[in-house]
Amino acid sequence: MPGKISAGLLLYRRKAADVEVLLVHPGGPFFAKKDAGSWSLPKGESTIPGEPLLDRARIEFREELGIEPPPGPWLELGAVKQKGGKTVYAWACEGDFSGPAHSNTFEIEWPPRSGKQQAFPEVDRAEWFPLLQARDKINPAQIALLDTLALKLAG
Predict the structure, then answer these.
(1) Pairing of strands 5-15, 43-45
(2) Extents of the domains making up the chain
(3) Are 71 and 130 in contact (CB under 8 A)?
(4) I want to staple 101 with a disulfide (CB 3.0 to 4.6 A). Which of 48, 94, 126, 132 is the partner?
(5) 4 φ, ψ to 5°?
(6) Which residues of the chain have pLDDT under 50?
(7) What pLDDT does residue 2 have?
(8) C-alpha 60: how far from its chain's center?
(9) Domain 5-154, CATH 1.10.287.470 — does that match?
């Protein structure tokens, strides 16, 4: 059985001599105290067979940040496979965001084995990071997407 597929958008902006990218931190109790390697580009799972992945990426951007994604043009960054087997397809676009993130919520049993459902935001915050710092913050498998962005912007 193939792994799950996600699609996401990496927003970037140019600040002085640097490029910054907008990353999101997952909400909920499991990531509350995690930082390095826990951030991601805004993304989400595609569950509709044949769904155009850029369309899914735009929907997930809207759901995780609470704003419409820029109209483009979009730079295709390719795909990476994460440790758990999920493949993430990504595109980048120049734009700006001043936050805060207003994401959808999800429910889980919390505290564990309590029988109580609690809602948490999918994303608890979004921040801009220079590319070098973003490499430390982002899920390690997604570093390749940052590298592809840097190459495309340099060339």
Answers:
(1) antiparallel
(2) 5-154
(3) no
(4) 126
(5) -70, 155
(6) 1
(7) 61
(8) 9
(9) no
The tokens of 26 are what? Answer: 């997952």
What global pTM score does this model have? Answer: 0.91
Map the chain to HEC letters. CCCCEEEEEEEEEEECCEEEEEEEEECCCCCCCCCCCCEECCEEECCCCCCCHHHHHHHHHHHHHCCCCCCCCCEEEEEEECCCCCEEEEEEEECCCCCCCCCCEEEEECCCCCCCEEEEECEEEEEEEEHHHHHHHECHHHHHHHHHHHHHHHC
| pLDDT tens per residue, range 40-77 | 999 999 988 899 999 999 999 999 999 999 998 999 99
Beta bridge partner(s), residue 5: 87
